[in-house]
Amino acid sequence: MVFVQDGVRKTFAQFQQEVDQAAAGLLGLGLKKGDRLGMWGPNIYEWVLFQFATAKAGIILVSVNPAYQLQEVEFALRKVGCKAVVCPTAFKTQKYCDMLRQICPEIESSTPGDIRSARLPDLRSVIVLDSRQPGMFHFEDVMQAGSSQHVRQLHDLQKTLSFDDPINIQFTSGTTGTPKGATLSHHNIINNSYFVGRRLGYNWRPHPRVCLPVPLYHCFGSVGGGMCMAVHGISLVFPSAGYDGKANIAALESERCTFVYGTPTMYVDMVNQPDLAKYDLSLLEGGIMAGSPCPPELVKQVVSLMGIKGIIIGYGTTENSPVTFCGSPTDNMERKSETVGYILDHLEAKVVNPTTGNIVPLGMTGEIMVRGYCVMLGYWGDDTKTQECITKDRWYKTGDLGSMDAYSYCRIEGRIKDMIIRGGENLYPAEIEQLLHTHPKVMEAQVVGVVDERMGEEVCACIKLVDGEDCTAEEIKAFCKGQISHFKIPRYVLFVTSYPLTVTGKIQKHKLQEQAEKQLELKKAK
């Protein structure tokens, strides 16, 4: 592994030694099998280290979005009962330790490892990666905490771990706006990384060097990156802790990368780098684009401007560990640009009528459903939501509309749910609407995704004001700042007097989206 920005380079042998040391250290701090540990931070070495150390100790890693604000992180940690949190002191504008102290003021007067918090009753330990803080452990404390007794305990523990044990919780919001913890097992993510890696060609490419700018807290990064590294022996290159288009291109050249990951937004940034032509990308033979719909024109630009003839398109959901459909390096341009590939090995897919549940003919549009090793165990502590999306015979209902041809190549046609995909981030209008409704001048708010050339979609809030009130877009955005993650704050704010309605009085969001795009003079990508 290489973390270019931080100057960190690790061999497989070094990594294994430090994983064992960290795993024993976590046991030394009092964590045990089944406890939850929240990893809250950007793409840094310690993220991958704790991903594997927790798995080895049977501790469940909770992937926490590094952009989460106070309410979001408190909800996530409380929902799954995190016993420990690992984080840097801060990253960019995110003051992680300060936020934890705001939620748990008891930390200041606590002994490290013995936090007793009213708002987070399960939390006992905070592990800070880069500084000494009152009431918190330092990273080095973990690395020194594992005695020979804990090493033996770790060895004995291996006999009690099962491949079906939950090992990772990834948060994904629902249409209610309340985050749900998709719970994944060893079996889920090891199989997914194995079969994704084979589809990407890691079993025949000569020692791939993979550039990984996608965030580790997403399945795309942690499974497609970290797990693929372990399963297939690839080398990972992390250009920067947070996404930086120029750093990404520079790393492709300096680290002689042969493969690159990215969301469509990241590829837009790469192909639009003003000095792209001066970089030597001659070794770059392949890449995968996933995380949100991939415009056909962008796929063609990646091939023509970056020379990545082996670009591959992938599709999946967090609940499916994550990849379910993925193309092949040998696909023709039509398949690369118009489909998300074909179903992964040892998975089943079907397209059904969303109303009747009956399978539709090939080429017809319906809801995509998936079954197999990839389907999550369920949403943590939420059986009702789990049963809504996983049928009794273990078919996962994606909520996405699409069609399949005779070779199982899938075209995504749209979404049943109102989810907005902004630069690979899944955003749910209801959560943003709930916040906007707390503004004293707002009578009603509806949030839709509108087309954006760079991000795929942007957030647009269509607001009806309380009679007699005046308000500006800037006022609405300022109100949102600090209450929700920056990427959820509406890019556009439109003030309206009415919404398009059905005959039964329900708001037609697709028509509202069309009206917003027309008013903003936005055009769909061709």
Notes on the protein architecture:
This is Medium-chain acyl-CoA ligase ACSF2, mitochondrial. InterPro entries: AMP-bd_C, AMP-bd_C_sf, AMP-binding_CS, AMP-dep_synth/lig_dom. Residues 431-506 form the AMP-binding enzyme C-terminal domain. With 526 residues, the chain is of the alpha/beta class. The chain has 3 domains: 2-159, Rossmann fold; 182-415, ANL, N-terminal domain (Rossmann fold, 3-Layer(aba) Sandwich); 421-519, ANL, C-terminal domain (GMP Synthetase, Chain A, domain 3), CATH 3.30.300. Helices cover 31% and strands 25% of the residues. It is built from 16 helices and 26 strands. Strands 2-1-11-10-12-13-14-15-16 form a 9-stranded mixed sheet, with helices on both faces. An 8-stranded mixed sheet has the order 7-6-5-3-4-8-9-19, sandwiched between helices. A hairpin with a 4-residue loop joins β1 and β2. α1 crosses α5. The chain is globular and about 65 Å long. The protein starts with a strand and ends in a 7-residue tail after the last helix. The model has no long low-confidence stretch (mean pLDDT 94).
User: In the CATH classification, which architecture of the largest domain applies?
Assistant: 3-Layer(aba) Sandwich
Tell me the Rg in angstroms: 23 Å
- Judged by helices, strands and strand pairing, the structural class is alpha/beta
Please list the strands of the largest sheet in the order they lie side by side. 2-1-11-10-12-13-14-15-16
- Low-confidence residue ranges: none
